[in-house]
């Protein structure tokens, strides 16, 4: 068995952690030794009626179990509020090792019925919320020469889902953000990854039958987040997690066919669709330049023939 994964001495910020997946992430990080900033919207209540916000209730749970936590009521879409949250964590604990970008909500509609406001609201919270929080901790992590950032993407972004064009676009944008930040963060010890969860939460309770929801506990997803937030985390990974099953997803590039510049290039391309669809030589590029490298190499090879 690998050694127990612990976060002693580390500080984690989990956004949208008043309920659902974020709450499970915050509780587990704290149980494994991390000091946790539990962020959720100030107005968010968890229905217990005890006068506390959802984030404050999670903080109380962590403290009751002997852990350390503070609540933040900032909206991830508010740069000043996020900065205050980060400043508070730095005042209390002097470092931030882990950021789990988890906050968000849905505004599902078919594209026909979706307004631009519906689209922007979702891009704002999922993409820009993650950008704002990441920007606020980036310099701190650089200075520390250590950071772990987990973006919460979704199968809706990776593979598409009817009625979720706004959400899918925002969630796939987080994969793009992760791809570049993992490259830029590498020399500073910052590792950036994506988690694609499936869980029965407020977000999904109306979408699936009860017996399916019973399998999809947030707690069965959280080990995936713990791995991506751990000292031995990979970087640039997309990890799918749900009902205790974990799988990797990849953005790949096929080997390609060289056609060259010619008047009938499109007809030549159509004639080679079978070769184009051949996935046997697919690679996972280590950066965007690998596409142009492959294209130029094929063009030069064709010129030599
Ligand atoms: N549940 C799933 O099956 C599933 C699938 C794929 C991705 N996700 C993603 O996982 C993350 C967590 O979702 P969940 O299922 O636990 O839903 P949830 O609704 O239980 O939790 C999301 C939390 O984010 C908070 N939040 C919303 N806007 C915020 C803001 N502006 N600032 C701070 N907090 C805000 C909400 O108050 C809520 O507590 C989301 O990013 C979601 O898109 C969930």
Description:
There is one protein chain. This protein is α/β, with parallel strands linked by helices and 305 residues long. It folds into two domains: 11-249, Rossmann fold; 265-304, no CATH class. It is 44% helix and 14% strand. It contains eleven helices and eight strands. It has an eight-stranded mixed beta sheet with strand order 3-2-1-4-5-6-7-8, sandwiched between helices. Helix 4 (116-144) links the parallel strand 4 (98-101) and strand 5. Helix 1 crosses helix 8 and helix 4 packs parallel to helix 6 (165-185). The longest helix has 29 residues, at 116-144. It is globular. The N and C termini lie far apart (54 Å). The relative contact order is 0.11. The mean pLDDT is 96. Residues 15-16, 18-22, 39-41, 44, 54, 75-77, 102-105, 125, 129, 152, 154, 197-199, 201-204 line the site of nicotinamide-adenine-dinucleotide (NAD).
